[in-house]
Structure formats: C-alpha cells, structure tokens
Write a structure and sequence with these properties.
There is one protein chain. Among the domains are: about 100 residues, Rossmann fold, CATH 3.40.50; about 60 residues; about 210 residues, 3-Layer(aba) Sandwich (Alkaline Phosphatase, subunit A); about 70 residues, no CATH class. The chain contains 28 helices and 17 strands. Helices cover about 45% and strands about 15% of the residues. The protein is of the alpha/beta class and about 675 residues long. The two termini are about 50 Å apart. The chain has a six-stranded mixed sheet with strand order 6-17-9-5-8-7, sandwiched between helices. It has a four-stranded parallel sheet with strand order 2-3-1-4. Strands 11-12-14-13 form a four-stranded antiparallel sheet, with helices on one face.
Amino acid sequence: MANWRDHILTEFTPKVARLTLVSDPDGLLLEEGILAGILQRGFEPIPFEDPVAFRYAYESRFRSGWDRGEQTDLVVVLHSGASDLDSLPYDLLQAGRRLSFNLGDIFPNLSYPVVAVLDRGDLDVLYEAQERHAPGVLGDNPTKEFVLRHVFGITPELVRTPSDLLRLLLRRHYRKQRIPSLLDERLVHVLRRQGGFESWPLESIIPDREVFFSFLQERWPIFLDRTAKSAKQKGSGVREDATPYRLELPGPADLSFDHADVRVYIDNLFLEGLLEAVPHEKAESLSKSWVAAGIRTDDRADRARRVDSLLDTLPSAIPNLDARHEDWFRIAGNWAELVSLVLDPDAALTEPAGQKMVRLQARIDDALLSWLTKRYAGLVNLPPVPPVMLHHIPRFLSRHVDGARQHKVVLVLVDGLSLNQWIVLRKELAQKRPGLRFRENAVFGWIPTITSVSRQAAFAGKPPLYFPNSIHTTDKEPALWTQFWVDQGLAQHEVAYAKGLGDGDLGDVEAIVAMPRLRVVGLVVDKVDKIMHGMELGAAGMHNQVRQWAAQPFMTKLLDLLLENGFRVYLTSDHGNIEAAGCGRPSEGTVADLRGRRVRIYPDPSLRHQTQERFPGALEWPPIGLPTNYWPLLAAERSAFVRKKERLVCHGGASLEELILPLVEIERRGA
C-alpha cells in the first residue's frame, strides 16, 4: 500500500453501514490525516469515553437525525482492544459493524513498544523506511536505532565531535522535534558508551529544549570573549575552562558556535527570540562580523533588523493545506514575535515595512482560514498529550495528578491574552524573576473565540457540544471544572476554582493554596480582557496597557505563591484579540442569541443566512463541536460588526492572533 493510512481508510466506504464500531487501542484514528480522510468520506467519528456524554451526543446529533431519515455515517471509537467492543451498549452492538486496527498489523517486524510511543504523525516516514529497507524482525534496541535513523535523521554512532552534537541538537530543538523519552534514553546511552562527551549534560540538553537553549545562552558571552581575542587564543574547538564565568548548567564553557554546521542556525536563534542578544565591550567591532545578530548595540536598530528579517523569512513559512497543526503553531510564534516588536512603544516601522506587514498578514489570514475549513474538525478528537485544543488541557494535566498524592497542579488562565501579549508578559516576568523557566507551547482556542465557548471548554475538559445549557454564560465553570476532576477520581475538596483575579489582591488565592488536601486549582486572571474591552487606542495601546500591567507585581507574586506551595504551574488563555475596523452593525433586533463584535450567534442557519446576505464577506462557520442550535456568523477578515470607520480591539473570529494561544509551563530553574 502507498502509506500506512491506506490500511485503515480502505475500510471506510460511505453508506455501507450508518454505524461503525472501531477498536482503536493505539489511537490511529486520532491522527490528523486519518481524521481528515474519514471526514472527507462523510463519516463522523465520536469517541466512547464518558458513557453519559456519549449518549447525549449520540441521541441528540445522530439518532434523532436517523429518525428523520437523514443519512450520516457515524464511527464510534473505543480506544481499547477488539474484545472490549462487547462492552459497548447493546443497541450499538446490534446496529453497528465492527472494525479493529492496531500498530502491530501495520509494522509487524518492528518492536511494538517502541513504535507505540511515536507521535502518529511520524508513522509516514517510518512506514516508508520499512517498505524501502525491509529490515526483517527487529528487537527493542535495533528498532530504536532504526527509528532514530530513519524517522529523526539521527545516527548516534556518527556523533563523535562537539560540533556534531551541537548540530544534532540545534536541528532537533529549532524544529521542535518531539522524540519519545525511550529513544532519547537510547541516544544518551550510545553517546556515553562511545565516549567523548563525559562533561556534557546529555541527560538534560538532549530531551529538554528550554535547558538546551539556556545552555547555549550561558555560553554565548564566553564565545564572544574568545572571538574578540586573537585567532591564536580563540581556537576552534571546545574548552573546559569556565573559571571566569559562573555557569548554572554544567558542561564545557566554550562552544564552537563558529563551526559551519552550527553557525548556520545562529541568526535565526536570535531573530526568533530563542536566544537573547547580549551587550559586549567590543560590540562595535564584533557587530561588523557574522556574530552581529547576537550583539546588543542600539535597541532601535536591533529591533528594526529583526523586523526586516522576520518580514523576509515568514512568507516562505506559511503552511499549506496539508500542513500539520504544529506548522501553524510555529508560524504563530514567529508572527507573535514580529507583532510584539512592531508594537513596542520605541518601534518606528518604516512605510515599506508597514505595507509588507499588511500584505503578509492578509496572506496568513487567507491560508489559515483555508486550512481551518479543511482540518479544524479533525483537531477536536486529537490525543490530549500534548494538548492541541483548549479542552485537551485538563486531561493533559491529569497525568501529573495521577501519580503520588503530593502532586499538585494549577491552571492559570489569563483571559484574552494573545501570543504576542504573552511575549510582553514573559519579558517582564523574566526581568523580575530571572530564575523562572518557561516551557512554551501553543493550543487552538474554540471557534468562535469567545469566553463562554472557549474558556468554558478549557475548564470543562470537553467540547462545547457537551455544555449546551451554559453555552452563553460562564457561571457553570466551577462546577464543570470540579466535575472533570471528580470523574478522574479526585474528591471535591481536592479541587478549587477562582476568577476575577489580576488587580493585586491575592487573599483568595492564599486561602485556596492553604487548603491542606488541595491538589488541583483553576484560576482566571481577567485583567487583560478588561483592558481589551476598554481599549480605545488600538493594538498599540493594548500592548502598552498589558506591558504596564505586567510590570506591576501581581503576576510575579502569584507565581511565587503557587511555586512556593509546590504547584506545577501552567498558563494559558481562552482567546486572543485583534484590532478590527467596523463593517456596519446588523439591524436584527432579538434574532441573534449573541451580538458580539467579531461574531453573531443564531439559533438556526436560516436566520444566520439572512444576516449573511447583508454582509456578504461574513463567514457562516459550521457548528463544529458546538450545540445543535448554535450557528456562528464570523465577521469578514479583520472587521467587526460595529459602525463603519470605528476601530477597536476585539475577539470572536478565527484570525491567528485570536485562535492560537500560549500554553506555558512555568517553573524555577533547577527545580
């Protein structure tokens, strides 16, 4: 077969049976390409996890439609063995045909435990390598090395010099490659056995992206000192002499940044904010060489150089229709860096650069909307580890609570915080608390990107479809949050929730964390959302206000309190925001259930279409994962349903800034 997906998709022929029951112990139907293929064939998958939630969705969305004579091919997915299909309700077993898929059937010659830990998106390359090389039956360690070589491009026995190791780690961590710990352990073992890296902290810099870049950041000033000296003193290798420097991370002090295989990454590391430029007493002479990107000279000139470079490199990075969601996370992070630079109060964007940014923004918006139209529905049921959408986060957090009783976790949701505003907050936090480490990732919010949909999903741990009675309010969030954790086996007194935070008073949080048996906390910091709703000075004014708030002590004190009390801290948001221009206000009385600035919600599609005809650029968004009587109409492009010529900062649509949000683990270095 052409690829591993064909083993599965050939079984999905439309209109053979309206109900298909699938045993999927390895989560193969959760892979993006499989999900897209199933949806394109007219099938709609639904997991059987919570029997009550499943029965609600089944009866309200499918059984009722079948009774009306509608044709829908439903796939009920049980993530356990084929024999467990018998545990499904009797009426499903009577009506459905049965299928079963597992990795052992697709990769019969490779070690199942090794293949099972791979991200499902990596199976394409593995299947192709299996077909091309026909390796025969392999045990655990040979399978690990086969996967390292053919999936991740890592041949451990060829890593012999410091520059070899740096090149390997730069390629991996710059691309945000996720390699299972099982394979990392094998790589470390082989490198240790080969020798030559005795002083290197391989166990931390190989698997941990943030530690690796901290390792480089500490050693960059050392390299600049060597570069500023004569060629004879500088040399070209790695030196162990760290006497003049205080290094937090162990290992060689002087790295070969100037090696050709390493140097090629340096500009991008500083350009994208992965490394921070540093001042140097020889800055004037150093800035005339290839190390200029890592030298802090004139802040305004440095900022302008980064803006120009990002404007030049981002167009070629715009994902295509077949891209994976990680590609959008990557460009969202780089776009956020660009926006934060441009909106800095000391920035001075030239007219050509401003025009280039407007054109780039339009291209990104168009590409994202086309991709969402094709792939958004498949994101809902992706595995929660790592989280892809907001409702995945609670299930992801539950992994940290399932272990020892002393494990505690807190979700800090900063309402309305966009990725570019997170960069502003991060800089302030890093300045005030240099000992903090930020493990940065991203998640998709829900469309429409409004609080009652997106934030509620983050605390419910479920798509909005499952809380139709509270879809227009957030009053049920504490109950939904508590119910999720009770379903995971916690007692109610082990779970807490608080909102309305952000203005300096931590009394409520102090009382919560002092509770002796507490294990899980959800906190809503709504200051950024309040700033947005009162903003009259556009995106630049919004950034300035967020910066002023971040400079106040609230967030640093909150993080201090949580970390000192032993919590594992995660920060996220429910939606971002954009500056939008008015396109006119619909005159519809009480027809719309919600009359937002970037989105209107209607109880049925015909009412929505009447408004859409008067605003032909508006998008009739399908109710994916939403209640059956919830039909969104999104304002066109970067416009808002307010009077023409009015400009404001708002949310509710599907732009990059509104939809892709920060998910950050915050910890103390060395913790």
